[in-house]
Protein backbone atom coordinates (compact mmCIF):
# COMPACT_ATOMS: atom_id res chain seq x y z
CA UNK A 1 0.00 0.00 0.00
CA UNK A 2 1.31 3.43 -0.95
CA UNK A 3 2.14 5.94 1.76
CA UNK A 4 0.00 8.98 2.45
CA UNK A 5 1.15 12.09 0.63
CA UNK A 6 0.17 15.65 -0.20
CA UNK A 7 0.69 17.69 -3.34
CA UNK A 8 0.80 21.37 -4.17
CA UNK A 9 0.94 22.29 -7.84
CA UNK A 10 1.85 25.77 -9.07
CA UNK A 11 0.68 26.41 -12.64
CA UNK A 12 -0.34 29.29 -14.85
CA UNK A 13 -2.70 30.12 -17.70
CA UNK A 14 -1.89 32.68 -20.41
CA UNK A 15 -4.39 34.35 -22.78
CA UNK A 16 -6.89 31.57 -22.16
CA UNK A 17 -9.98 30.45 -20.26
CA UNK A 18 -8.75 28.07 -17.52
CA UNK A 19 -12.24 26.81 -16.63
CA UNK A 20 -15.34 28.23 -18.31
CA UNK A 21 -18.66 28.49 -16.46
CA UNK A 22 -21.38 27.19 -18.80
CA UNK A 23 -24.05 28.90 -16.70
CA UNK A 24 -22.36 32.30 -17.13
CA UNK A 25 -21.69 32.62 -20.90
CA UNK A 26 -18.64 30.36 -20.45
CA UNK A 27 -16.74 33.16 -18.70
CA UNK A 28 -13.74 32.03 -16.65
CA UNK A 29 -14.96 30.95 -13.23
CA UNK A 30 -14.09 33.64 -10.75
CA UNK A 31 -14.68 34.93 -7.23
CA UNK A 32 -16.66 38.16 -7.64
CA UNK A 33 -15.44 39.43 -4.26
CA UNK A 34 -11.67 38.93 -4.68
CA UNK A 35 -11.36 38.83 -8.47
CA UNK A 36 -9.43 35.54 -8.29
CA UNK A 37 -10.09 32.93 -10.96
CA UNK A 38 -11.31 29.48 -9.95
CA UNK A 39 -10.76 26.03 -11.45
CA UNK A 40 -12.76 22.96 -10.46
CA UNK A 41 -11.30 19.62 -9.43
CA UNK A 42 -13.12 18.09 -12.40
CA UNK A 43 -11.12 20.23 -14.86
CA UNK A 44 -7.77 19.16 -13.32
CA UNK A 45 -8.78 15.49 -13.22
CA UNK A 46 -9.80 15.67 -16.87
CA UNK A 47 -6.25 16.72 -17.80
CA UNK A 48 -4.95 13.76 -15.78
CA UNK A 49 -7.40 11.25 -17.27
CA UNK A 50 -6.66 12.38 -20.83
CA UNK A 51 -2.94 11.94 -20.19
CA UNK A 52 -3.48 8.51 -18.60
CA UNK A 53 -5.31 7.39 -21.72
CA UNK A 54 -2.45 8.55 -23.93
CA UNK A 55 -0.08 6.62 -21.64
CA UNK A 56 -2.06 3.44 -22.27
CA UNK A 57 -3.97 3.22 -18.99
CA UNK A 58 -7.60 2.14 -18.85
CA UNK A 59 -9.81 5.09 -17.82
CA UNK A 60 -13.47 4.57 -16.91
CA UNK A 61 -14.77 8.15 -16.59
CA UNK A 62 -14.56 9.45 -20.13
CA UNK A 63 -16.83 10.58 -22.95
CA UNK A 64 -17.57 7.62 -25.20
CA UNK A 65 -20.00 7.37 -28.10
CA UNK A 66 -22.05 4.35 -29.14
CA UNK A 67 -22.30 2.93 -32.67
CA UNK A 68 -24.90 5.59 -33.54
CA UNK A 69 -22.60 8.43 -32.51
CA UNK A 70 -24.49 9.26 -29.31
CA UNK A 71 -22.73 9.88 -26.00
CA UNK A 72 -23.13 6.86 -23.77
CA UNK A 73 -24.67 7.10 -20.31
CA UNK A 74 -22.94 5.72 -17.24
CA UNK A 75 -25.37 2.79 -17.21
CA UNK A 76 -24.66 1.91 -20.86
CA UNK A 77 -20.90 2.22 -20.36
CA UNK A 78 -20.92 -0.08 -17.32
CA UNK A 79 -23.08 -2.59 -19.18
CA UNK A 80 -20.55 -2.62 -22.01
CA UNK A 81 -17.68 -3.07 -19.52
CA UNK A 82 -19.42 -6.04 -17.89
CA UNK A 83 -20.19 -7.70 -21.22
CA UNK A 84 -16.65 -7.30 -22.61
CA UNK A 85 -14.96 -8.49 -19.39
CA UNK A 86 -17.59 -11.18 -18.79
CA UNK A 87 -18.00 -10.13 -15.14
CA UNK A 88 -21.11 -10.48 -13.03
CA UNK A 89 -22.63 -7.65 -11.00
CA UNK A 90 -21.09 -8.91 -7.75
CA UNK A 91 -17.64 -8.97 -9.40
CA UNK A 92 -17.91 -5.48 -10.89
CA UNK A 93 -16.40 -3.38 -8.02
CA UNK A 94 -13.23 -5.48 -7.83
CA UNK A 95 -12.91 -5.49 -11.62
CA UNK A 96 -13.18 -1.70 -11.85
CA UNK A 97 -10.62 -1.16 -9.08
CA UNK A 98 -8.19 -3.60 -10.70
CA UNK A 99 -8.50 -2.45 -14.30
CA UNK A 100 -9.09 1.33 -14.13
CA UNK A 101 -6.51 3.64 -12.59
CA UNK A 102 -8.94 6.57 -12.30
CA UNK A 103 -11.34 4.42 -10.24
CA UNK A 104 -8.54 3.29 -7.90
CA UNK A 105 -7.40 6.86 -7.26
CA UNK A 106 -10.33 9.21 -7.88
CA UNK A 107 -13.19 6.84 -7.09
CA UNK A 108 -16.42 6.53 -9.07
CA UNK A 109 -20.18 6.82 -8.79
CA UNK A 110 -21.89 3.96 -10.63
CA UNK A 111 -25.61 4.45 -11.15
CA UNK A 112 -26.62 0.92 -12.16
CA UNK A 113 -25.75 -1.34 -10.49
CA UNK A 114 -25.54 1.19 -7.65
CA UNK A 115 -22.00 1.38 -6.30
CA UNK A 116 -19.99 4.30 -4.93
CA UNK A 117 -16.23 4.36 -4.43
CA UNK A 118 -14.70 7.23 -2.47
CA UNK A 119 -11.43 8.13 -4.11
CA UNK A 120 -8.40 8.03 -1.79
CA UNK A 121 -6.81 10.74 -3.95
CA UNK A 122 -8.74 14.00 -3.80
CA UNK A 123 -8.03 17.13 -5.86
CA UNK A 124 -9.41 20.39 -4.48
CA UNK A 125 -10.77 23.47 -6.23
CA UNK A 126 -8.04 25.91 -7.22
CA UNK A 127 -7.86 29.69 -6.94
CA UNK A 128 -5.51 32.04 -8.71
CA UNK A 129 -2.90 33.72 -6.54
CA UNK A 130 -3.44 36.99 -8.38
CA UNK A 131 -6.55 39.02 -9.08
CA UNK A 132 -7.01 38.22 -12.77
CA UNK A 133 -8.59 40.37 -15.44
CA UNK A 134 -11.31 38.91 -17.69
CA UNK A 135 -11.52 40.21 -21.27
CA UNK A 136 -14.23 39.84 -23.92
CA UNK A 137 -12.75 39.09 -27.35
CA UNK A 138 -14.31 39.09 -30.82
CA UNK A 139 -13.12 38.39 -34.34
CA UNK A 140 -14.09 37.13 -37.80
CA UNK A 141 -13.98 33.48 -38.73
CA UNK A 142 -12.86 32.22 -42.14
CA UNK A 143 -16.34 31.14 -43.24
CA UNK A 144 -19.77 32.71 -43.68
CA UNK A 145 -22.60 31.72 -41.39
CA UNK A 146 -24.57 30.25 -44.30
CA UNK A 147 -25.01 30.17 -48.07
CA UNK A 148 -25.48 33.57 -49.72
CA UNK A 149 -24.06 35.53 -46.77
CA UNK A 150 -21.78 38.49 -47.54
CA UNK A 151 -19.82 38.39 -44.28
CA UNK A 152 -18.01 35.74 -42.31
CA UNK A 153 -19.26 34.63 -38.92
CA UNK A 154 -18.19 36.68 -35.89
CA UNK A 155 -16.78 34.65 -33.03
CA UNK A 156 -16.64 35.80 -29.41
CA UNK A 157 -15.12 34.43 -26.23
CA UNK A 158 -13.86 35.41 -22.78
CA UNK A 159 -10.23 35.04 -21.81
CA UNK A 160 -7.91 36.04 -18.97
CA UNK A 161 -4.50 37.54 -19.90
CA UNK A 162 -2.71 35.75 -17.06
CA UNK A 163 -3.52 33.79 -13.93
CA UNK A 164 -1.19 31.89 -11.57
CA UNK A 165 -2.78 29.05 -9.60
CA UNK A 166 -2.17 26.80 -6.61
CA UNK A 167 -3.81 23.36 -6.67
CA UNK A 168 -3.83 21.15 -3.57
CA UNK A 169 -4.31 17.36 -3.67
CA UNK A 170 -4.01 14.62 -1.06
CA UNK A 171 -3.72 10.84 -1.13
CA UNK A 172 -5.15 9.32 2.07
CA UNK A 173 -4.03 5.74 2.69
CA UNK A 174 -6.70 5.26 5.38
CA UNK A 175 -9.45 5.95 2.83
CA UNK A 176 -7.94 3.29 0.58
CA UNK A 177 -7.59 0.75 3.41
CA UNK A 178 -11.19 1.21 4.60
CA UNK A 179 -12.46 0.22 1.15
CA UNK A 180 -9.89 -2.46 0.43
CA UNK A 181 -8.37 -0.49 -2.46
CA UNK A 182 -4.84 -1.57 -3.31
CA UNK A 183 -2.99 1.59 -4.40
CA UNK A 184 0.65 1.12 -5.35
CA UNK A 185 3.54 3.56 -5.36
CA UNK A 186 3.56 3.13 -9.14
CA UNK A 187 -0.07 4.33 -9.31
CA UNK A 188 0.89 7.55 -7.56
CA UNK A 189 4.00 7.98 -9.71
CA UNK A 190 1.68 7.77 -12.71
CA UNK A 191 -0.52 10.43 -11.15
CA UNK A 192 2.41 12.84 -10.72
CA UNK A 193 3.50 12.28 -14.33
CA UNK A 194 -0.02 12.74 -15.67
CA UNK A 195 -0.65 15.83 -13.56
CA UNK A 196 2.40 17.55 -15.04
CA UNK A 197 2.21 16.23 -18.60
CA UNK A 198 -1.56 16.50 -18.81
CA UNK A 199 -1.36 20.27 -18.42
CA UNK A 200 1.48 20.45 -20.94
CA UNK A 201 0.05 18.17 -23.61
CA UNK A 202 -3.57 19.30 -23.65
CA UNK A 203 -3.16 22.91 -24.67
CA UNK A 204 -5.30 24.89 -27.09
CA UNK A 205 -6.41 28.48 -27.72
CA UNK A 206 -8.89 28.13 -24.86
CA UNK A 207 -6.70 26.02 -22.57
CA UNK A 208 -3.15 27.40 -22.58
CA UNK A 209 -1.71 26.31 -19.25
CA UNK A 210 1.74 25.28 -18.02
CA UNK A 211 2.82 23.52 -14.81
CA UNK A 212 5.64 25.41 -13.06
CA UNK A 213 6.34 23.50 -9.84
CA UNK A 214 4.90 20.46 -8.10
CA UNK A 215 5.75 19.75 -4.46
CA UNK A 216 5.04 16.17 -3.32
CA UNK A 217 5.40 15.36 0.39
CA UNK A 218 5.56 11.62 1.10
CA UNK A 219 4.98 10.64 4.72
CA UNK A 220 6.42 7.68 6.63
CA UNK A 221 3.20 7.23 8.57
CA UNK A 222 -0.38 8.36 8.20
CA UNK A 223 -0.25 12.12 8.50
CA UNK A 224 -1.98 14.97 6.67
CA UNK A 225 -1.27 18.66 7.04
CA UNK A 226 -4.59 19.51 5.38
CA UNK A 227 -3.57 22.20 2.89
CA UNK A 228 0.24 22.16 2.52
CA UNK A 229 0.15 25.89 1.82
CA UNK A 230 3.86 26.38 2.53
CA UNK A 231 4.88 27.83 -0.81
CA UNK A 232 4.89 31.59 -1.30
CA UNK A 233 4.90 33.39 -4.63
CA UNK A 234 6.57 36.79 -4.71
CA UNK A 235 5.99 39.18 -7.58
CA UNK A 236 8.67 41.38 -9.14
CA UNK A 237 6.04 43.90 -10.28
CA UNK A 238 2.53 44.99 -9.31
CA UNK A 239 0.09 42.06 -9.25
CA UNK A 240 -2.14 43.87 -11.77
CA UNK A 241 0.78 43.88 -14.24
CA UNK A 242 1.50 40.15 -13.89
CA UNK A 243 1.62 38.59 -17.39
CA UNK A 244 4.40 35.97 -17.29
CA UNK A 245 6.07 33.51 -14.91
CA UNK A 246 9.33 35.48 -15.27
CA UNK A 247 7.71 38.19 -13.11
CA UNK A 248 7.33 35.79 -10.16
CA UNK A 249 9.64 33.96 -7.74
CA UNK A 250 8.60 30.79 -5.92
CA UNK A 251 9.81 30.79 -2.32
CA UNK A 252 10.12 27.41 -0.51
CA UNK A 253 11.30 28.81 2.85
CA UNK A 254 8.09 27.78 4.68
CA UNK A 255 8.24 24.30 3.15
CA UNK A 256 11.81 23.94 4.44
CA UNK A 257 10.65 24.92 7.92
CA UNK A 258 7.75 22.46 7.71
CA UNK A 259 10.17 19.68 6.76
CA UNK A 260 12.53 20.47 9.65
CA UNK A 261 9.66 20.49 12.17
CA UNK A 262 8.07 17.26 10.88
CA UNK A 263 11.15 15.45 9.64
CA UNK A 264 10.48 12.37 11.75
CA UNK A 265 7.17 11.86 9.91
CA UNK A 266 8.33 12.66 6.37
CA UNK A 267 9.98 10.12 4.10
CA UNK A 268 10.86 12.53 1.29
CA UNK A 269 9.85 15.74 -0.46
CA UNK A 270 10.01 15.78 -4.24
CA UNK A 271 10.11 19.04 -6.15
CA UNK A 272 9.22 18.79 -9.85
CA UNK A 273 10.40 22.06 -11.39
CA UNK A 274 9.97 23.70 -14.76
CA UNK A 275 13.21 25.13 -16.13
CA UNK A 276 11.82 28.65 -16.52
CA UNK A 277 10.84 29.28 -12.89
CA UNK A 278 12.86 31.22 -10.33
CA UNK A 279 12.98 29.33 -7.02
CA UNK A 280 14.36 30.51 -3.68
CA UNK A 281 15.27 28.48 -0.57
CA UNK A 282 15.38 25.12 -2.32
CA UNK A 283 16.68 22.71 0.31
CA UNK A 284 19.38 20.13 -0.43
CA UNK A 285 17.17 17.66 1.47
CA UNK A 286 14.56 17.80 -1.30
CA UNK A 287 14.70 15.55 -4.34
CA UNK A 288 14.59 17.89 -7.37
CA UNK A 289 13.28 16.65 -10.72
CA UNK A 290 13.29 19.05 -13.65
CA UNK A 291 10.81 18.78 -16.50
UniProtKB/TrEMBL annotation:
Pfam families: Cas_Cas7 (PF05107)
InterPro entries in the record: Cas7_Csh2/Csh2, CRISPR-assoc_prot_Cas7/Csh2
GO biological process: maintenance of CRISPR repeat elements
Xref: NCBIfam families: cas_Csh2, cas_CT1132
The protein's name: Type I-B CRISPR-associated protein Cas7/Csh2
